Amino acid sequence: MRQTRYRHLLTSSILKIRSSLDIENILSTTVLEVQKTLQAERVFFYLLSPDGSGKLVHLVGTPDLSPIPASDAEGSWLPEDIEKYCCSGAYAIPEITLAEFSQPHLEFLHRHGVRSQITVPVFVRPLSQEVEEEPGILLWGLLCVQQCHQRREWTVWEVDLMKELADQLSIALYQAQLLEQETRQRQELARSNGELEQFAYIASHDLQEPLRTVGSFAQLLERRYQDKLEEKALRYIKFIVDGTNRMQTLVNDLLEYSRVGTRGKPFQVTDCNAVLEEAIANLEGAIRKTDATVQGWRYGDSDITGGHYRRPKAISGLPVVMADSGQLVQLFQNLIGNAIKYSRPEEPPSVNVKAVRQEDGWQFCIQDNGIGIDPKHFDRIFQIFQRLHAQDEYSGTGIGLAICQKIIQRHGGRIWVESKLGFGSWFYFTIPDRNVSIP
User: Fold this and answer.
1) Topology of 2-184 in CATH?
2) Phi, psi (5° rounding) for residue 355?
3) Which of these CATH numbers, 2.60.120.10, 2.40.50.100, 3.40.630.10, 3.30.565.10, describes 264-299+311-439?
4) Which of 81, 133, 167, 313 is the most exposed place for a label (fewest CB within 10 A)?
């Protein structure tokens, strides 16, 4: 009967211990459950520090027991006997006077009227332990149960119960440490990203004014003294103007990159067909200039009214998702714009956009018939400021795809490319299902 009751109490205690991922709450719950399960007079956890010292934490006891003062709670009496506890798995002592402890430890036990005691070591695997290696463990602390009014013979079931609780406590503590580490890393990443975005924003604004000044005066110099300067001097002025223009474009792109995470709008129901239409409209000049076909549509196919091209006919076939519509327009515009820019000279650009349903969201593909990308550069192209071509071959700052990646990361998806030189590229990205708005 007692065995059945202990097994029931053990199951209940384990559920309570494993229900939390807060270390302090886990320890507090453990000592309370142990006291209730074993009907013990005093239970505490002896927490070890990296320097080998320790202290009593989360002590509970019956009201008739005197509290342990802070001077004793620091546990300077225990370190000599730590190994004795660790080697036994569960060290059950029915009579303290028979225990072979160090003198300071025995004095502590006598001072606080301890007659019987059972102690189990709690081990935790270090967070830095590699998965592939043989798991190593560290002694994290000791779970101690004491009887003071009379001696107590600890049963086999009570010893086994304490061992099982110690094992479950080890698992719960390891999971809690993982959560703490993840939380710290997430906070550090958020702080670092915030500082980076703030730096980019300030640097961009601070750089704008001197760039405008240099560019304006260079252009003024060219206009006023064009007839008086030799060809080499005019060429140098042109270099200055071109350089400042490229620098301004670079600064603006850097500012846009830094704003992806800070200036984004809350996610809302977004029709990707409308997003694609807006992106195509924004690229009208490049599409008309290159005679490109996007989603089976060319500007030349539209009627001309009053000398102006109409917007493309309604597009269909793409899904509705929860997203930042403005950032999706930018994403489609960047990818389609790149497909047009990096086209082959022997045929006009052709771009197709498709989406397929997946278990947890949608996978999009933007396919082109352009010059393609060497597979060795697949990862590099998504890095900021990474360019595969010289400025005189293809203009740009090398930030466009980095912005695309940052947009997709904000939406909880991923982006990648498949390509072969001379045979076009397939840019894939995913947008997961989401039922609520996220700022």
Assistant:
1) Beta-Lactamase (3.30.450)
2) -145, 140
3) 3.30.565.10
4) 133
